[in-house]
Amino acid sequence: MKNNFKAVMIDLDGTLLTDDKKITDFSNQILQKLYDNGIKIIIATGRGLSRAKQLTEKLDFDKIILANNGAIIHSSSNIATDEDLMLESNVVDELSTLSKEYGIRPYFFVENKCALLIQDEEDKNRFVDSVGDIGEIMTVSERNLPIDDCVSMIMIAGKDHIYDIVDLIKTNPNVTYHIHTKYFSKNIRMLEVQNVNTDKYKRAIHVLEHFGIKSDEVVAIGDAHNDLEMIVNSGLGVAMKNSDDILKQNADIITQYTNEEDGLAKFLEELFELRDYE
Fold this sequence. Notes:
Elements: E1 7-10, H1 12-16, H2 25-36, E2 40-44, H3 49-55, E3 64-67, E4 72-75, H4 89-101, E5 107-110, E6 113-117, H5 121-131, E7 137-140, E8 150-158, H6 159-169, E9 175-180, E10 188-195, H7 200-208, E11 218-222, H8 228-233, E12 236-239, H9 245-250, E13 253-254, H10 263-271
Parallel strand pairs: 1-2, 1-11, 2-3, 6-7, 11-12, 12-13
Antiparallel strand pairs: 3-4, 5-6, 5-8, 8-10, 9-10
């Protein structure tokens, strides 16, 4: 390996995973080879921890997982990390009231679970149909909101309602938010609200400091707008061929192949010259 990169930061959906949420044998082999040669592997995902662990179970080495866009840090390494980043309880309460005014049922990621504010299976199934399998799900009532340990609050609705809510919360200094459009129809948006300090890149750099690794020694690879900070600020920012346009416009390199074509693994194999390195 003839470059100076010491860590690889990888998004899950649309990057490491195929569209049917699998890690190919080739991707597994390439990441294992990198790990065996001292490269730190960081999985940086918007998914909750329980589902992220399930999806990466095939990677049989000591990986670091940044779940919920970095709000939760998980590693089997004996390293010190910041506490999980929770939404302030008053923010959860205010957003719950606001969503109710717009007729939207909010969803809550609580630690490594997703708590759905529902009273029937129909709404639960509607959420899973929209977002996919997210792992363990629990239900709560409006009288039992998870206001003290909520890492992420999600609302799915028509784009007009979502942008109205964004206008009301964007001046709040205690929150950050993402509007997801991938996997939804053109008139539907998913709004995700989190603690203002939640950021894949910043949380990853905090972890890598324990290994003496600097940002310019990191390769970051993603496909969506919540990967933008890590793409822009890492030593090498890589957008998948199937990425959002904004990521492609800000990346140093765009992969030649998509996530369905082992684009991540083929890129890393070439970057680290793994065919010639034994």
